[in-house]
Design a protein that fits this description.
The protein is an alpha/beta fold. The protein folds into three domains: 210 residues, 3-Layer(aba) Sandwich (Rossmann fold), CATH 3.40.50; 114 residues, Sialyltransferase, C-terminal GT-B Rossman nucleotide-binding domain (Rossmann fold, 3-Layer(aba) Sandwich); 166 residues, no CATH class. The chain is built from 15 helices and 19 strands. The strands form three sheets. Strands 3-2-1-4-5-6-7 form a seven-stranded parallel sheet, with helices on both faces. The protein is elongated and about 80 Å long.
Length: 502
């Protein structure tokens, strides 16, 4: 018999797929942290899981009871003695609850080893197989530990003390989806296992019963309009725990990256506060309980686009979507800069179109993920041997910066006028400047604030074949209830000279 331990809905599906595909002829037991489901739904869902027959027994670990008995909460300044005292208390609680000889199991699989059973196994040096907590998350330990810290500081402190979360010497292997590792990451104990591959190629005959357990119903996708699935997140794991901020991030991303699509919202299982039917009238809202990893088996055919701020489940969507737009966690605090990067990409598109040539970009002090996603969605041609453009977010420009053929400065928000450019006497006389001024104008009911951005495209005109990219345009941000206005004009020679004389 094998034993699984888990704490998240991702790990539950992962363990179901692993048990049915890798241990089909062996009995299996299952421990789950009680917080996996809301208290009002636990009994019903537990009975439903037991009735499937996938596991010989299923037990919920009473973490809340253990929390009351383990002693004082820990902090990052807790002493080793204080940490060890809490670990001993946790182990005593587990021993009284366990009533099992762990040596009788042929293998023990542990997901989320920062909870009581994982602490018990780490503290007692019990060999086990570690299970990552999201597709490819083994390669993002720093991010995972930050999420752990946000959810439960005591568990975080203990995990670091015992060297858990994919770093313990007592882990005989680490189950993970290696296809979604961060580039360059390797782990000699990594053992590849993908939910998608298991369901698609190893146990396709079991897919209907798995979908039935999750209450998943088929979704027919028409080819008349491209479909974009937006994957939401659990507010508690985000950097800014504010519902208004979460709504602003969500609406901005949909406005910029899914305005031409039929919108489908996939809420995180614990994302229960935002009313997506109010925010996105007409969008299709999928059930919270439906794991994102099951979407490829629910939709009639692959969708055009998957979009998220920084959901940890997005990694499993690659085989199912034509395009995946996922941001790093910086989007959670830097979402207001989306406007500036959209304008930057739009300006570069105008330049590439005017010159009828791809661009070769060099980036410095900009949010690369935001910029590259806009370049992709706007179909800006990028090639290594294209027209060289230096893009920077640093206004403290040096004389050498102006020697580059084309320079794009992505400025901060502000109210600068044409005669208050962030350039001094460094600007050579043979350079022309395109000054792009963008304004965000919120409408009634919008959560956005009125703000403006300035971008400067410095060009050696003799290097160009076409006209300078001058334009005036507006973009309606429907769900954010705002309008983005952009005006790009030539900074005249007279204005340059008056500025230089200051």
């Amino acid at each position: 018999m094998v034993l699984y331990h888990l704490s998240t809905t991702y790990q539950l599906l992962y363990c179901i797929a692993h048990r049915l595909s890798r241990h089909p002829d062996e009995e299996a037991g299952l421990f789950m942290v009680e917080y996996i489901w809301p208290e009002t739904q636990r009994d019903k869902l537990l009975q439903k899981l037991q009735k499937t027959g996938w596991f010989s027994f299923v037990r919920l670990i009473p973490e809340n009871q253990f929390k009351l008995r383990r002693g004082n909460a820990l902090t990052e300044s807790s002493t080793p003695e204080e940490i060890q005292s809490v670990i001993r208390s946790v182990c005593i609680c587990m021993e009284k609850w366990l009533h099992l000889d762990l040596s009788s199991f042929s293998k023990i699989y542990i997901g989320s080893d920062q909870w009581s059973f994982g602490i018990y196994c780490l503290a007692n040096r019990i060999p086990h197989v570690y299970i990552e907590d999201a597709s490819g998350m083994l390669s993002q330990r720093k991010r995972y530990m930050q999420i752990t810290k946000e959810i439960n500081l005591t568990n975080y402190v203990i995990s670091e003390f015992l060297h858990g979360a994919g770093t313990s010497e007592y882990e005989t292997a680490r189950l993970c989806d290696m296809r979604n590792f961060v580039e360059g990451f390797t782990d000699e104990k990594a053992e590849n296992f993908s939910i998608y591959d298991a369901l698609k190629y190893e146990i396709p005959g079991r897919v209907p019963e798995i979908l039935a357990f999750y209450g998943a119903t088929p979704v027919t996708v028409t080819k008349r309009l491209p479909v974009c699935i937006y994957m939401t997140q659990f507010l508690k794991t985000m950097a800014v725990k504010d519902l208004d901020v979460q709504e602003q991030i969500t609406t901005l991303l949909v406005d910029y990256f899914a305005s031409d699509c039929k919108l489908v919202i996939k809420p995180h299982p614990k994302d229960i506060w935002l009313n997506y039917r109010r925010i996105f009238p007409g969008a299709e809202i999928l059930p919270c309980r439906l794991n994102a990893e099951l979407l490829p088996f629910v939709f009639s055919h692959p969708v055009q686009r998957v979009l998220t701020a920084s959901s940890t489940s997005v990694g499993g969507m690659a085989p199912f979507a034509g395009e995946v737009y996922a941001f790093t966690t910086e989007i959670e605090t830097g979402y207001e800069r989306l406007h500036a990067y959209y304008v930057a990409a739009f300006l570069l598109l105008k330049l590439a179109t005017s010159e009828d040539t791809p661009l070769a970009l060099t980036l410095s002090e900009v949010q690369q993920t935001q910029l590259y996603h806009f370049l992709k969605i706007l179909h800006v041609p990028i090639q290594a041997r294209g027209l060289p453009v230096y893009v920077t977010g640093n206004p403290a420009l040096q004389e050498a910066d102006f020697q580059k053929n084309i320079l794009l400065l992505v400025g901060d928000s502000g109210e600068e006028s044409l005669t208050s450019l962030p350039f001094t006497t460094c600007l050579p006389p043979d350079k022309s400047i395109i000054w792009a001024h963008a304004e965000v104008c919120p409408e009634e009911g919008s959560l956005l604030t009125e703000t403006s951005y300035n971008l400067y495209l410095v060009i050696e005109k003799k290097q160009l074949h076409g006209p300078l990219p001058v334009f005036c345009t507006k973009r309606v941000l429907r769900y954010s209830k705002a309008v983005l206005s952009i005006e790009a004009k030539i900074f005249s020679k007279t204005e340059k000279e008056s500025r230089t004389a200051l």
